[in-house]
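Appendix C: a fully annotated inverse folding record. The material below is reproduced so that readers can follow the format used throughout the book. The structure is listed first as tokens, followed by the designed sequence.
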């Protein structure tokens, strides 16, 4: 009887640990140049791929800003609820194969997401060929 209880508890701990390793949820974006908090991005799964949208703007310079420098169907769209991460797929310990949009300049970059060892920091890398820029986002606990 004690063995079954022990195994049940162990299995529950393993499931909780696996869930903590998940990148899904809300993340606070940090500007890599100023160190200031900018927004909250919710990362979610849809049709087997991972996406991210801006769900809150922290200290916006103007009310309800638009993505004026974006192209295509995102041009002129409100930045709040704008999907900025698209089509990511898990490959071992990283998510890649998708894109990330920088609403400030309207540019779209290839993207790679990786959860850091502390499980509360997400490495977000946008790149073109050999040039890349990395930000570290912090998990927002519910």
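Designed amino acids, in order:
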């Amino acid at each position: 009887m004690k063995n079954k209880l022990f195994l049940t508890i162990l299995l529950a701990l393993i499931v909780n640990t696996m869930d903590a390793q998940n990148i899904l949820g809300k993340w606070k974006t940090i500007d890599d140049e100023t160190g200031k908090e900018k927004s909250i991005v919710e990362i979610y799964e849809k049709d087997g791929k991972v996406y991210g949208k801006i769900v809150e703007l922290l200290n916006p310079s103007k009310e309800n800003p638009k993505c004026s420098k974006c192209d295509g169907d995102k041009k002129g769209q409100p930045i709040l609820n704008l999907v900025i991460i698209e089509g990511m797929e898990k490959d071992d310990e990283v998510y890649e194969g998708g894109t990330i949009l920088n609403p400030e300049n309207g540019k779209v970059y290839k993207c790679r997401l990786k959860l850091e060892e502390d499980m509360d920091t997400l490495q977000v890398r946008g790149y073109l060929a050999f040039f890349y820029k990395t930000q570290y986002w912090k998990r927002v606990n519910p």
